[in-house]
Design a protein that fits this description.
Elements (H helix, E strand, L loop, with lengths): L22 E7 L3 E12 L13 E4 L18 E2 L5 E9 L4 E7 L5 E11 L3 E4 L3 E5 L3 E6 L3 E3 L4 E9 L5 E7 L5 E3 L5 E6 L4 E10 L3 E12 L22 E11 L3 E11 L8 E8 L11 E7 L4 H5 L20 H12 L7 H18 L21 H14 L7 H14 L27 H13 L7 H16 L4 H14 L2 H13 L2 E3 L2 E3 L19 H17 L5 H15 L10 H17 L6 E8 L6 E7 L7 E5 L4 E10 L2 E11 L9 E9 L8 E10 L10 E5 L5 E3 L1 H13 L6 E4 L8 E5 L7 E10 L9 E7 L2 E10 L6
Parallel strand pairs: 4-18, 11-18
Antiparallel strand pairs: 1-6, 2-5, 2-7, 3-15, 7-8, 7-9, 10-12, 12-16, 13-15, 13-17, 14-16, 17-18, 19-28, 20-27, 21-26, 21-28, 22-23, 24-25, 24-27, 29-30, 30-35, 31-34, 31-36, 32-35, 33-34, 36-37
């Protein structure tokens, strides 16, 4: 098989910058096969070995406003480069019997070498693998920019612009920035001249001060300037210089400008059900107010309306939580909710109406499945940090078994692996005497331990998982587990969380008289009021946020969600439970964040499972609700939307132009829709009265010149809670000061040192640094009476001036209120 043959025009010098970025044509040869093509960014040409050239000469020239070239009034003649992917052109092509296929694509704007790889599959010839072939994209000269990903408003950062010369002669380039109201320049000059000789590069810098928040564009331009008596001489010139006349290069880069302090989000959620309201119409006023100490310029408001409690989930499948998800349990937040979305679409016959959502959910599930296998131990069990834990976790293994079994309806799950996982649960975690499941391995979620030391809570959780995985209710394993649960219920369960799980497990097994006993107890301790119904725990940490910004404790969301599932089971015999279930749904909706999730992993998974089950039960083909939203203050704004069966999973979103404000929400029609108002703003680093952690931070400058370019950050965390001996899994988020990043190589060496010396500080993993996100470190737990100390090495990548302090956030992953903030700065000079 003649495979493959590629052809493209040879690289040549072009008189215009955009001529080197033309269509690439690739001819593919084979015989009746499918061919995959992939182009991978190899390196920037600035990293490619240059041909011999004159000695390097590069200098900034005198600023002369009278010789700056003006852009013609008809518009810019340059091509603005904006598209810089690392991987390009995943392409599948079918090659017919003729054996040749040609595809054409526009090359991205990167000045680089692209390397193509490909393989071909054929029923007749098998598989063929191509030899890598490179494609070089370049132009006579181009500019490259170096700038930070994010800065704080009014900080000053250097924008470095480098000009690369690929000719053999020297020439002068004027480098300038397009003026913008988004930023100012410290020295007021938007242009500089640069002499760059053949095969070399030269740089200039502009000191940028961003003035507005958000992603601001910065457009940098470079143009060849012919020799002139007004400019100093710039080395040796030649005939090829004539090709540079009217040649420009321009790039558009963005910088994220953030505000000081910490971002806070407040969401107001409620159901609009006009046909249940007095007079057949709904009317509510919603006050949108910011705290008095809001950082100026950070407040924003928006309104979202959707006809289904799953609407926000479908819109935000990839970002249900605003938290790190770096362990085996947290990874499931990107997997499990998709199951409930697909089940709802299939069971309500709406799959054909939302093909993109259906396919996207399956894609997220496939990725989540592949990632979760990293946390699988050789014996088929799962643990939060995989093989590093040394032993599988009964709790996490049950969670994964349930999720994978439910997902097997939609994606390929290895049934043999599921069987091995099921066998591990049954053979290694079941107590022969009591029938209860034994808590093996790490339980990073303390509520799963409940108020029982004999594993009743975990047994209920595992029983639910086995039922979902297809375990027969009549099997010996289920018989013994039910006996464990029945005995605990008969003896009396004081812990509400455990009572909810035990009752739901017995309801799933369909042992009616027994689970009804638990249901009656739950009804007796329910909290009612304001048209809602929910369940609480006595030892929940207090919320000390601004009024209206506090959400329920994650364990309370979990137990209330389990009770909603119990009500749905009970409604099959008594329809009144379905009517009462809406009161629970009202309360759960009030606790949701703007992305459709809740606070943590388990409450989001169980909460969405319960809401999806409810949405499926109450689905109707007769929905038609009109919603009018208007402001009552300042520049009046009016928004209108109509929700029907055709669009009830689509989320309508409106930005409120003037905020603070008061909204007047009116609804009429038949059915219910979900309303959500979201306020986002920044507050100074939060000072919380109930300090659950003592956080001490010290920055040590270890550079000889004491310029803060490399700083050791000593962090010590002590757990102070008098009620609990230890936390759940805890996270330390270190937000970077602008221009700095964590040296992960040093961190790895530090971790190796701790292991080699037998020091265990409970650090299980860290997330590799991502621009714009805090650096997250995961700890097994923090214990009262013990201090945990560790060191991070911060390196300064870009020297930003007038930097603002950043903060360290220490929190219990499963207790949203157990949190402490501490500000820090790596350099006392600033």
């Amino acid at each position: 098989m003649d495979f493959p043959r590629t052809s493209h025009p040879p690289a040549s010098r072009n008189s215009r910058a955009d001529r080197s970025r033309k269509l690439t044509e690739v001819s593919l040869c084979g015989c009746g096969c499918f061919l995959w093509l992939l182009f991978i960014h190899l390196s920037g040409l600035e990293d490619v070995k240059k041909p011999p050239a004159m000695p390097f000469r590069s200098r900034n020239l005198t600023h002369r406003a009278d010789i700056i070239p003006e852009v013609p009034k008809s518009g810019p003649i340059y091509q603005l480069r904006t598209h810089f992917p690392d991987t390009w052109l995943w392409h599948l092509s079918t090659i017919g019997k003729e054996g040749v296929s040609t595809v054409s694509h526009t090359v991205p704007h990167s000045i680089t070498d692209w390397v193509t790889t490909g393989f071909c599959t054929s029923a007749e010839h098998g598989i063929g693998i191509a030899e890598p072939i490179s494609l070089r994209v370049f132009q006579p000269f181009f500019i490259s920019t170096v700038l930070p990903y994010s800065v704080i408003q009014d900080e000053e950062f250097p924008l470095k612009i480098t000009v690369f010369n690929y000719l053999s002669e020297c020439f002068t380039v004027v480098v300038r920035l397009e003026p913008s109201s988004y930023f100012s320049i410290q020295d007021q000059d938007f242009f500089k001249y640069l002499c760059v000789c053949g095969g070399q590069a030269g740089s200039v810098e502009f000191s940028i001060i961003p003035r507005v928040l958000g992603k601001i564009p910065i457009i940098a331009l470079g143009e060849y300037i012919p020799p002139s008596q007004d400019l100093p001489e710039c080395g040796k010139t030649g005939n090829s210089i004539d090709e540079l006349l009217d040649v420009w290069d321009a790039v558009n880069r963005t910088v994220l400008v953030e505000a000081e302090g910490t971002e806070v989000e407040r969401a107001i959620n409620f159901l609009i059900c006009p046909d249940d309201a007095e007079g057949g119409s709904f009317l509510e006023e919603v006050s949108l107010e910011f705290p008095f100490n809001t950082v100026p310029g950070t407040g924003s408001c928006k309104v979202q309306v959707t006809g289904n409690v799953l609407g926000p989930v479908l819109t935000n499948l990839g970002s249900l939580l605003r938290m790190p998800t770096g362990c085996g349990e947290q990874n499931m937040i990107g997997f499990t909710p998709n199951i409930f979305v697909l089940m709802y679409l299939v069971h309500t016959n709406q799959r054909v109406n939302f093909p993109e959502v259906y396919n996207q959910a399956k894609e997220y599930m496939q990725r989540g499945y592949e990632r979760e296998l990293q946390y699988r131990l050789n014996d088929g069990s799962y643990s939060a940090f995989g093989q590093r834990d040394g032993e599988g976790s009964t709790w996490l293994t049950a969670f994964v078994l349930k999720s994978f079994a439910m997902a097997s309806e939609f994606i390929d799950i290895d049934s043999r692996d599921l069987e091995v996982t099921r066998d591990w649960l049954v053979n290694n975690a079941l107590d022969d005497d009591t029938g209860c499941f034994i808590p093996r391995g790490r339980v990073i979620h303390k509520s799963m331990q409940g108020g029982h030391s004999n594993g009743v809570t975990l047994t209920a959780y595992t029983t639910i998982a086995l039922i979902e995985a297809g375990e027969p209710a009549t099997s010996t394993v289920m018989f013994r587990a039910v006996y464990c649960l029945f005995r605990a219920l008969d003896d009396g369960i004081d812990d509400t969380y455990t009572l909810a799980l035990v009752t739901y497990a017995l309801a799933k097994v369909n042992i009616n008289p027994i689970y009804r006993l638990g249901l009656t107890k739950l009804q007796e301790i329910a909290v009612t009021g304001d048209g809602t119904l929910h369940w609480t725990r006595d030892d929940a940490p207090p919320c000390e946020g601004e009024a209206g910004s506090c959400k329920a404790d994650p364990a309370e969301i979990e137990m209330t969600s389990y009770v909603l599932l119990i009500y749905l089971e009970a409604s099959q015999d008594d329809p009144q439970f379905l009517l009462d279930a809406r009161l629970i749904v009202e309360w759960l909706n009030e606790q949701r964040n703007s992305h459709g999730g809740f606070t943590s992993t388990q409450d989001t998974v169980i909460g969405l499972e319960a809401l999806a089950s409810y949405a499926e039960r109450v689905h109707s083909d007769d929905k038609s609700v009109i919603v009018d939203i208007s402001t009552t203050e300042g520049d009046l704004q009016h928004e209108h939307c109509e929700v029907t069966n055709e669009n009830d999973l689509v989320m309508e979103e409106f930005d409120i132009r003037q905020c603070p404000n008061t909204l007047r929400v009116f609804g009429e029609g038949e059915g219910c829709v979900l309303f959500q108002a979201v306020m986002q703003y920044n507050l100074p680093v939060l000072r919380i009265v109930s300090q659950y952690f003592d956080v001490q931070v010290e920055a040590r400058d270890h550079t000889p010149q004491q310029d803060c370019s490399r700083v050791y950050l000593d962090i010590t965390v002590s757990y102070l809670d008098a009620k609990n001996e230890f936390t759940n899994m805890a996270v330390v988020d270190v937000k970077m000061v602008s221009g700095y990043s964590v040296d992960t190589n040093e961190l790895e060496r530090y971790i190796d040192y701790l292991y080699s010396t037998g020091q265990d500080i409970g650090l299980m993993r860290y997330d590799h640094f991502e621009e714009g996100k805090p650096f997250s470190l995961y700890f097994n737990q923090f214990s009262r009476g013990y201090s945990t100390s560790f060191v991070l090495v911060l390196k300064r990548d870009i020297h930003v001036k007038n930097t603002r302090p950043a903060f360290i956030k220490v929190y219990d992953y499963y207790e949203g209120g157990v949190v402490t903030y501490k500000s820090y700065h790596p350099c006392s000079q600033d």
